[in-house]
Specification:
Two copies of one chain form a homodimer. With 266 residues, chain A is α/β, with parallel strands linked by helices. Chain A has helices spanning 16-25, 47-63, 74-79, 81-87, 96-106, 118-123, 125-133, 147-153, 159-174, 191-197, 206-220, 243-252, and strands at residues 6-10, 31-35, 68-71, 92-94, 111-116, 138-143, 179-183, 202-204, 234-237, 259-260. Chain A contains twelve helices and ten strands.
Amino acid sequence: MDDRPIGIFDSGVGGLTVAGEFLKLLPDEEIVYFGDTARVPYGSKSKEIVTKFSAQIVSFLIEKNVKAVVAACNTVSSNCYEALTARFDLPIIEVVSAGAGEAARITRNNTVGVIGTERTIASGAYERMIKAENPEIIVYSKACPLFVPLAEEGWINNSVAAAAAEIYLQELIDRDIDSLILGCTHYPLLTDIITRAAGGVSVINPAVQVARKMRALLEKRGMKRGKSDKPEHKFFVSDNSGKFDKISRIVLGKAYKAEIAEVEGY
Amino acid sequence: MDDRPIGIFDSGVGGLTVAGEFLKLLPDEEIVYFGDTARVPYGSKSKEIVTKFSAQIVSFLIEKNVKAVVAACNTVSSNCYEALTARFDLPIIEVVSAGAGEAARITRNNTVGVIGTERTIASGAYERMIKAENPEIIVYSKACPLFVPLAEEGWINNSVAAAAAEIYLQELIDRDIDSLILGCTHYPLLTDIITRAAGGVSVINPAVQVARKMRALLEKRGMKRGKSDKPEHKFFVSDNSGKFDKISRIVLGKAYKAEIAEVEGY
């Protein structure tokens, strides 16, 4: 038994879609969430700066006494995972391999699409991970930088979102993909419009697999929370922009309060 | 005479549209530009964090020996100008009063529209400044958070940009504005699509007035550059994301090189 909380972090509030899957699948666990809203987005920034920011955040979560960390951010997962695991001792789970594994399992025609931020797509991480599962799978990737601001604007189902989804997804559809990984934590907010633009393909939200992976890890290591009282989750953001309230209400079904925390200089 | 350079800073690369007007109007002056590409965008962040970031950058520019500073970022201009002028001794020019003054001069029906980031619009700064010029002018404002990522995606003239511009501008057109201030340094990149969506209204880029204001200030104080050799401009960014090359080529007509500089902890 290990009563300490699980740390989940993201470049901003998008990682709340991952926290939401944890609340569903691991309802007895406590969560400490950190969203770097002062420096969001990470997806258009360099690998060096994102690695630095991530290490500052993991140090912060360790100070909060977490037993394991989830790098909910695809940009972090695909660029900084080795650097973080080399530097820190506690278990760290990233989101890319989970999504890649699911795509490899469900594709029928061995043709998978991946959408994400510029940085995630440029890293080639999903392609590498999918090919590690099955080298015969062909992966087509597309950066969709407008999807994050669209989700944050609340334009998740209007003409602008539809036009953007059609432009971004056309070349993947032309390649005959039969499954599509949402390679950014914000994208599940746009599931409806993406599913419509993508025609009949299977849309994969990696967060579901990540929560399963964490459950397996805690069970295997005997690290599940033992206390039977109601878990108390904590949410931190590096800047109070109002986005946390808006997105937490959509994703978690209730407006949690977030504290402001500074991580610079760790 | 004062041979020191002029400092211009912005939350990212959008301020290059301001630097471009300076190169045209003050061709003998040297410029030191800083774009906070590691922490862009400012427009959706809180006043406190944006004030902190701005003060770090002005300190950095002072270390680079500038004689005056332009806060090219509308978010900074409309939220942090008092805090910056209270803290630093050198002349600081902001962009909001310049744009407001021009709108007050050219409106015929005393009905002006302002578009900008969420933070700029929430500050009410343009409205206050315009009413200070002429209390009879009615100002309608609209935050357009998608315009910055559209400009950075290079989608400055496609169906997505057109749909976004139509949605954002409709309520301003319905109010019968006859002039529209581009209250964000990125927006001049979208001038064509904004002008089309806005019908026959006069579109105002405040950067033109800002450059004139700086010229007047330098002349009045005898601070113009005396050297006759070709000015050497310096460009700094806090993260190398590739955006600088792309936007500097569009805005300045040639690809300047930017150095990476860290401003955290000033």
